[in-house]
Each structure stands twice: as structure tokens, then as C-alpha cells.
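Thread amino acids onto this structure.
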């Protein structure tokens, strides 16, 4: 429209020779042709930017799906990973073709692709293979070492690529403005060759055109400075109006995606740094409100028995009254949780409503999923618009994955320090705890006792009643020891039927008194297996202490072990204190049953 309207004005107002008008018109046509070319370049640059954002998203999606497969081991979660990898390769190839005239961008795409391929070769493929072989530790080690470094590098490469392409888009917009300025200069030449009326009309037209170009240029410069709120002055249906509207739409999308990406990155970093599930929900309750403005929120998590949804976090709007006490809800009370998809309710809808905390006239329930399992639900009220709803779904996904990872981490930590049969700490934990408690005793000049406990005639018990009964006995031993120690004490399974207890701030005499209490408790232990009475058992206990029997862990344990074997030798079912290094000649102190069992 600019070319046709301008030609009409020039023809009406033209008083100069036809040759001058023809020459001027040819110049104007060429300038606008150059402008069209510049607009095409802008469109191509914007398309490349959107494709680069898709590549970054696919890379992150591949990393998330790979981690999801490692956590669950379900083959159903491998398909999204392979789809993301395939689409990533296709998108990078397409992006490489778009950047055929930009060696620098092609190099960045090639580097991003190389890092992604290296991540696949060194982390994803080996980790998935290890997970399929049930080598969970190896897959977790890969993700924790090279995986974290390469995924961070992938994110950084993607950010550099999109940032660099954003600069190109802004430069193309500036170039388009310069082309328009050239068109303006040709228009001024025509105006100079026309009559006063043509000059006046041309001046008005030129001033309007320059103003619009300045608005467009100012908006482009604002974006270049990082001001994502910059908007171009978009009027008319001509090329400049279309470019301005396209620019504004692009700026809005970039702003929304940048804010969302920053929010997701911040939330992900904080959740990864959390040490427990409760801490993760505390962080979520503080961070999510700023990322989902205009909505109140309630976060509920399913309990271990999957019978109740428990409120773990709330956030409200300024001026909201103090929330009512948290109420539990059944999983069936939330349609979003039951269906595994977002459930929106608006006033007047025929949609069925939920029956749990956070539900109002208008609300949105977003299930928090991890590897196909619903872990909880995020409820927002009033229901946000589609953009914020999509953002809420992504946040809920991040929260769900973080909760699943924290639970897995807690489970692995427990498995690393606990004995699976008795529930007591294992030998590895004992060695660490003994060194820690011994160092504390030395620092504060306090006593520390250790007792080594062994079930008498355990082999005969196993041979008589079977290994299942033996395991049942060991479980009973673990339960009895857990109920017999103080909170500061440490009870461990040392190996086989042998157990060891660390008693901080306890003298040998106090340890002997407590050892006899434990020994008597074993007398009262009624054992049965599959309804069959197994009789009673006894234990022998050896006691040694710091500093009486040694200054180092191994020395004290050996002393207690020697006392244990003396107790065995003297008839079992008794507790003995090892001879002190300062009084080796003193006889050991013991308390035994009045009627010692034979053997």
C-alpha cells in the first residue's frame, strides 16, 4: 500500500518532466524492493530464533526424559527420550540449513549438536544401558558426574545460540529501518521536484514515515539493551505496520519465554539443592507465587499409603485472610489427580468440581507427575489464563520430578547405612559413627563405651529351626536393640549374629548395667515362627571403653571383642568388662544368670 499510495500522490502533484519522475520512481521502487528483502530477512531470522528455542527445549526434554527413565526403569519412559533425540537431530539439521549464510551460527549449532551427541554417548546411552541391567548405582554415578556437567554445557550452548540469534533479529530489524530511511530519502527527492502542494504533502508523509521508523528503531534498541518490555508503534496495514506488529508479537513471546525459562531454571536449581521433601515444598511455597501471579495456591502430596492428599504448602494474594487449618482429602476428591491431567473449573461450567482444599468458584488443578505416577496436585484459584496454566503445568512437572528424586535419594541413603534384615545401622555406618563419637569424647574429655553382643548358639538355632527362623530371630534382635538404646546411642549389626553398640558419655559400669538389662530382656523375648514356639535365647556381651581400654576405635573394639569371647568361654549368657589397660591384673567384672545354661 505504501508504494501505490505514494505513486498516486506523486503523479497528481508532479509538475516536473516525465523523465525526472520516471527516474525518481525507479529509485523508490528499488528501495522498497530492498525493504521487502529486509523484511524477508527479518522473518527468516525470527523463524531461526523460534527453531533455536525448539532445539533448546528438545535438548532439555531429552535430559528430563532420560532422568525419568533412570529413576523408574520403565521402558515406557524411554520412548519420549528417543523421540526428543530424533526431533533434536531433525531440528538441528533444519537449523543448519537456515544458517547456510551464517558460518558463525552454523558453528554454534554444530557445537551444540556435538555436546548433545557427547552427552548421549558418555551419559545417556551408558546410563540407560546400566539401568536396564539394574545397575542403578552406575547410572546414578554417570548422571551425577559427567551428566551434570554436560547437561549444564548443553543449556549454556543453547542459551548462547538463542541469545546470538536474538541479536541477529534485532540487527535485521535495524537494517529494515535503514532501508525504510533510504525509501524516505527517495521520497524527499520526489517531493523536491514537485510543486509546493506536492512538497507539503510529501513533507507530511515523510514526517509520519520517519516517526514510525523511529518508534520501530527505538523498540529494537530497547530489546538490544535487554528491555523486554519495549514495544514498537504499530499503526496502518502497510509493511512497516506489519513489521511492527510482528516485532511486538515476537517481543512478547521472547519476554514470556524468557521469564518462564528463568523461573523454571530458578525453581529447578533450588529444588536440586534441597535436602529433603519438606524443604522442597517450603521452597516451592515461596518461589511459585512470584511465577504465577494473580492466583492463590495449595500444594497437596499423596501420603505413603496413597490414602490421603495432605496439604504441604499454601500461598495467597495480598490482603487474603489467614487460611483455615489444613484439611486432608482423599485422592478421589480431586479430578485432576484421578485423571492425571489438568482439571479447570470456571463459573457456570457443567464440569464436575473437586472436593479438597483450595477449591473456589474458579480454579485449576494440575497433577504433579513423575514417571507416570501422580505424587500430588497443585491447585490455583482463580483459574489462570492459558499462558499461566501452561506455565503451571511445567512447574508442577518440575516439582513432581524433584519430589521423586528426593525420595529416591532418601531411599538410597537409607540403603547405604542400614542393614536390610534388622533395620539397624550397618558396619560401614558404625565405623564412621565410632570415629565421630570418639573424636567428640576426646574433645570434651568424656567417656565412651562400646559393647559387642553375640547371640549364643546361633548356629545351632539355625540348624534346628532353619534359616528363615534364624532371620526372624535377627529381626527380633534388631527390634529389641532399637527399643533398648537412648536417642544418642548407636546400634549396629556388625556381621552375622554379632552386634555392636556405641554408648556416648557412658562409663564401663553404666554400660555393664545396661548390658545386663538388655541380656535380661532377651530372657523375656518370646520367639515364634509360623506359629511354632522357638524357645528363649541368650546373648553374651563384651564391654570396653575410652579411655580405659584404648584411645582408638579398633583397639576398643578388639578389647570388647576379647571380653565377649571370655564371656563365651565362661559359660555364655553374661556381660563382661574388658580389663583396663591401667589394671590388667584386676579380674573382670561380670553379672551372669544365677543358673547359667549349658554350652
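Threaded sequence (599 positions):
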Amino acid at each position: 500500500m505504501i508504494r501505490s499510495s505514494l505513486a498516486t500522490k506523486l503523479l497528481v502533484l508532479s509538475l516536473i518532466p516525465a523523465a525526472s519522475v520516471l527516474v525518481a520512481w525507479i529509485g523508490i521502487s528499488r528501495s522498497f524492493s530492498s525493504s521487502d528483502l529486509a523484511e524477508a530477512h527479518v522473518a527468516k531470522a525470527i523463524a531461526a530464533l523460534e527453531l533455536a528455542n525448539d532445539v533448546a527445549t528438545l535438548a532439555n526434554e531429552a535430559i528430563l526424559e532420560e532422568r525419568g527413565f533412570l529413576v523408574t526403569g520403565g521402558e515406557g519412559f524411554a520412548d519420549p527420550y528417543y523421540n526428543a533425540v530424533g526431533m533434536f537431530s531433525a531440528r538441528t539439521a533444519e537449523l543448519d540449513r537456515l544458517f547456510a549464510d551464517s558460518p558463525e551460527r552454523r558453528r554454534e549449532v554444530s557445537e551444540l549438536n556435538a555436546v548433545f551427541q557427547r552427552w548421549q554417548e558418555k551419559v545417556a546411552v551408558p546410563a540407560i544401558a546400566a539401568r536396564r541391567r539394574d545397575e542403578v548405582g552406575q547410572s546414578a554415578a554417570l548422571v551425577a558426574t559427567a551428566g551434570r556437567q554436560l547437561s549444564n554445557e548443553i543449556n549454556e550452548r543453547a542459551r548462547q545460540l538463542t541469545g546470538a540469534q536474538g541479536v541477529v533479529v534485532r540487527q535485521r530489524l535495524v537494517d529494515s529501518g535503514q532501508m525504510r530511511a533510504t525509501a524516505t530519502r527517495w521520497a524527499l527527492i520526489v517531493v523536491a521536484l514537485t510543486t509546493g502542494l506536492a512538497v507539503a504533502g510529501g513533507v507530511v508523509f515523510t514526517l509520519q514515515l520517519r516517526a514510525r521508523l523511529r518508534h520501530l528503531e527505538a523498540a529494537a534498541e530497547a530489546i538490544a539493551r535487554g528491555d523486554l518490555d519495549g514495544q514498537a508503534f504499530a499503526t496502518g496495514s502497510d509493511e512497516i505496520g506489519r513489521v511492527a506488529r510482528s516485532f511486538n508479537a515476537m517481543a512478547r513471546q521472547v519476554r514470556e519465554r524468557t521469564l518462564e525459562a528463568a523461573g523454571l531454571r530458578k525453581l529447578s536449581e533450588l529444588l536440586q539443592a534441597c535436602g529433603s521433601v519438606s524443604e522442597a515444598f517450603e521452597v516451592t511455597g515461596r518461589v511459585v507465587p512470584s511465577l504465577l501471579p494473580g492466583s492463590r495456591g495449595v500444594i497437596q502430596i499423596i501420603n505413603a499409603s496413597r490414602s490421603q492428599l495432605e496439604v504441604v504448602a499454601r500461598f495467597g494474594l495480598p490482603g487474603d485472610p489467614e487460611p483455615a487449618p489444613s484439611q486432608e482429602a482423599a485422592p478421589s476428591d480431586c479430578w485432576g489427580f484421578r485423571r492425571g491431567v489438568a482439571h479447570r473449573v470456571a463459573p457456570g461450567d457443567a464440569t464436575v468440581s473437586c472436593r479438597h482444599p483450595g477449591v473456589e468458584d474458579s480454579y485449576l488443578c494440575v497433577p504433579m507427575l513423575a514417571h507416570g505416577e501422580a505424587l500430588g496436585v497443585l491447585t490455583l484459584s482463580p483459574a489462570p489464563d492459558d499462558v499461566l496454566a501452561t506455565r503451571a503445568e511445567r512447574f508442577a512437572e518440575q516439582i513432581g520430578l524433584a519430589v521423586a528424586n528426593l525420595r529416591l535419594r532418601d531411599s538410597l541413603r537409607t540403603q547405604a547405612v542400614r542393614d536390610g534384615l534388622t533395620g539397624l545401622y550397618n558396619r560401614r555406618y558404625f565405623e564412621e559413627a565410632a570415629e565421630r563419637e570418639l573424636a567428640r569424647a576426646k574433645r570434651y574429655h568424656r567417656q565412651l563405651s562400646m559393647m559387642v553382643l553375640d547371640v549364643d548358639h546361633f548356629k545351632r538355632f539355625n540348624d534346628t529351626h532353619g534359616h528363615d527362623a534364624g532371620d526372624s530371630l535377627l529381626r527380633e534382635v534388631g527390634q529389641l536393640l532399637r527399643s533398648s538404646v537412648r536417642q544418642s546411642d548407636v546400634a549396629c549389626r556388625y556381621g552375622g549374629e554379632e552386634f555392636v553398640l556405641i554408648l556416648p558419655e557412658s562409663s564401663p559400669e553404666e554400660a555393664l548395667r545396661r548390658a545386663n538389662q538388655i541380656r535380661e530382656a532377651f530372657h523375656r523375648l518370646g520367639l515364634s515362627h509360623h506359629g511354632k514356639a522357638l524357645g528363649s535365647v541368650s546373648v553374651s556381651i563384651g564391654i570396653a571403653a575410652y579411655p580405659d581400654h584404648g584411645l582408638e576405635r579398633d583397639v576398643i573394639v578388639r578389647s570388647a571383642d576379647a571380653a565377649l569371647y571370655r564371656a563365651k568361654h565362661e559359660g555364655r549368657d553374661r556381660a563382661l568388662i574388658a580389663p583396663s589397660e591401667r589394671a590388667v591384673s584386676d579380674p573382670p567384672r561380670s553379672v551372669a544368670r544365677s543358673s547359667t545354661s549349658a554350652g
